[in-house]
Amino acid sequence: MKKPLKKGFMLGGYIENGGIGAIPHNFAHDIKRNKIAYICLVFILAYFIIFNYFPMAGILMAFERFSPAKGFFGSKWIGMQNFVTFFTGPYVFRLIRNTVAISVLDLVINFPAPIIFALILNEIHQKHFKKVIQTVSYMPYFISAVVACGIVANFCQAGGVVSELVAKITGNPNSINLLSDKRAFWLIYVLMNMWQGLGYGSIIYLSALTAIDQELYEAAEIDGAGKWKQMLHITLPSLLPMISMMLILRMGAIFNVGTDKILLLYQPATYEVSDVIGTYVYRVGMQEADYGLSTAVGLFNSIIGTIMLLTTNKLSRKFSGNSLF
After folding, report:
1. CA 209 to CA 239: how far, in whole Å?
2. How many beta carbons lie within 10 A of that of residue 66, not counting itself?
3. Cα dihedral across residues 152, 154, 159, 161: positive or negative
4. Which terminal residue of the chain has fewer beta carbons within 10 Å of its beta carbon, N or C?
5. Mean pLDDT to the nearest integer, 136-160
6. How far apart are CA 230 and CA 216, in angstroms?
7. Taking a C-beta distance cutoff of 8 angstroms, is the pair 247, 65 a contact?
8. What is the pLDDT of residue 8?
9. DSSP letter, residue 171
10. How many CB atoms lie within 10 A of CB 62?
11. pLDDT of 144 above 50
């Protein structure tokens, strides 16, 4: 007597007796039932294969003295020599120090900023005023990096609005170009990221706030809890899964400092504090045409990001019970 079919993982199929033998028949049946879904899936898979997996063959350049004329498989294999060249180079300490310092500063300031901004917006009940604030805060995100850096450069040059304000606050008679000041570069970069990403980054937290059951607030208010206690005991715990997920993703990209913005902002006077791994990869690869060395440094950067992602995910799962995987 035939056993009843057991539902499997496929969209509309069944696996007989939990076995694998029935998968091809049911898979074909599932394709017939969901043709449109599978056609869309083919395009998505093709995109990732062509633009994400095929380019991974370029990793070979990290272990070669790459020559465009000879290609991936014709260039001379030199093993780990490119990595040795980087780690024994004169700039390795400066690059890693600047990358870590800017990334950590950006994380400490700009990760909680959208959360705080979303909490403030959530307390504004005047509909039109709230929409105006949101629109104004979203706009800088859609400005290109070139234009945004041009605005920052104009404001921070000698005689600019920000430079004049800083001169008055510090009591200096004359304003200076802040972008040429080593002490100011990191802060300018981080505040620029805040200006561009504050409003846009708050969208996901505002969406999470709308999903919180309003009856919890009503019950807390009846029990005498004020706004501060409601935020501590209802709002933040409800946002914790989203915060954990965003933090894990952010840690995975902690070494991916905005190279394009730094290239547009830094000057010879600030190379010591503004030169990061991304700008070094650009300089070595595009200006010096040492593709093997630039690929090796980029691969090192990616490996560090992967380690940070996995570590943060594990710690988040252990201490908060939330994780990406």
Report:
1. 7
2. 25
3. negative
4. N
5. 90
6. 9
7. no
8. 43
9. T
10. 22
11. yes
For 180-205, give one letter per residue: b (16+ CB within 10 A) or e: bbeebbbebbbbbbbbbbbbebbebb
Of 26-30, 119-123, 158-162, 299-303, which gets the smallest average pLDDT? 26-30
117 pLDDT more than 90: yes
Report residue 177 as tokens.
């170009």
Q: What is the pTM of this model?
A: 0.80
Structure tokens at 19: 């076995």
Give the model's pLDDT for residue 25.
Answer: 57
Tokens 């539902």 -> residue: 7
| Burial group, residue 127, by CB count within 10 angstroms (0-12, 13-18, 19+) | exposed
Cα(first)–Cα(last) distance of the chain, in Å? 41
In whole angstroms, give the CA distance from residue 284 to residue 76.
19
| Residue owning tokens 């690869």 | 285
Q: What would the mean pLDDT of 66-86 be, rounded to a whole number?
A: 86
Go through 225-256 and write b for each residue having 16 or more CB atoms within 10 A of its CB, e for each that does not: beeeeebeebbeeebeebbbbbbbebbbebbb
Residue range 272-300, pLDDT digits in tens: 898 898 888 888 888 888 888 888 988 89
Domain ranges of the chain: 1-54, 89-319
